[in-house]
Amino acid sequence: MTRDFIEINDFVVLLEYADSKEEIIDSCGFDEDVIAFAFYGSGNVDLKVECSYKQQNYNNTKGLAMSFFANGNVKFIHTVSKNKKLSCVVILYSIKNLKELPDTERELYAQYVNELINPSNDYVEGPTFFMDHNMQNAVDKIFANTYKGPARSLFLRSQVTELLAHFFAKVSGSTKDKTKTIKDTERQKLYEAKEILTKNMETPPSIAELSRLIGLNDFKLKKSFKELFGFPVYKYLQNERLIKAHELLSSKEVSIQEAAWSVGYESLSSFSNAFIKKYGFRPSEVKS
User: Fold this and answer.
1) Alpha carbons within 13 A on the beta-carbon side of 250
2) Angle between helices 218-229 and 184-199 (to 10 degrees)
3) Statement: the pTM of the whole predicted model exceeds 0.90
4) In sequence order, what are the beta bridge partners of 12?
5) Same domain, 113 and 34
6) Does the pLDDT at position 79 exceed 90?
7) Mean pLDDT value of segment 49-58
8) Could you tell me the residue range of the domain that residue 193 belongs to?
9) 11-18: strand order across its sheet
10) DSSP letter (8 states) at residue 9
11) Distance in angstroms (rounded) separating the CA atoms of residues 35 and 161
12) Element (H or E) spanning 111, and its range?
């Protein structure tokens, strides 16, 4: 498991990444009091948080956005499932540096994550929820970017600002959360549908077939899938195809045509146009 620390003025961006054919168990912690915002873009992770007074467990953390306060007494243990790439963006603010934020940002923190600014224990959990498609897309872009040096720092700052804006919009209630009406049993079926699509990118099932496989009728599948994940079923599939294609191209082991075919695109021009629309650059720029 690799961790890339990037210091950007008043905060630190921590990029966590893992890709292994074997299960990975990894632990980490912080040397000072921090407020953190973590966005799990991909992977299947069991996260255990240990401190002096309790243990908190998080399961199936793909798509999870979480916030917390932690000090040096807290230990984070990641168990990363085999054959599932982990990508996680963590935005860290030192408590002592919060006073350096602009007044409007400090007011935002005081209003919506006050329990983290004024913690009562070694570890305090703040707002936690599943990301919408805007947040997921911002995380995808962070791991897909190929910038270096100052340009990379500038890009990361813009994406971090976007992630935090979406985060606070969510917790402030300025964006309506339609997922609250989805029952737990239905939610589990929708995640099963998403897993089926991810595993069958080249030849995905039809809506009718997918409905039968998960035991949910067509109407419920289409309506609730969009509410939960922010995309219609096949728009989600397109997004996952492009993420997988980027990974294949980054490996330098396949051609652009092979990457397109591997994720179900028969037309190279359609693939290139969709790729540019998502990432802002051509597939050939990944290969160069």
Assistant:
1) 10
2) 90
3) no
4) 7, 92
5) yes
6) no
7) 80
8) 181-287
9) 2-8, 11-18, 86-94, 34-42, 64-70, 123-130
10) T
11) 15
12) helix 103-112
Burial string for 208-227 (b: 16+ CB within 10 Å, else e) reads eebbeebebeeeebbebbbb
Please indicate, yes or no, whether residues 215 and 157 belong to a single structural domain of this protein: no
* pLDDT cut 90: percent of the chain above it: 29
pLDDT of 89 > 90? The answer is yes
Residue 141 and residue 7 in one domain: yes
Q: What is the CATH number of the domain that holds 193?
A: 1.10.10.60
Q: Select from 86, 83, 87, 80 the least CA-distant residue to 46.
A: 80
Encoded tokens for 234: 């096949």
- Given CA atoms 150, 153, 158, 161 in this order, what sign does their dihedral have? negative
CA 183 → CA 63, 226, 269, 274, distances in Å? 18, 15, 41, 33
- C-alpha atoms less than 13 angstroms from C-alpha of 187 in its C-beta half-sphere: 11
How many domains, the chain?
Answer: 2
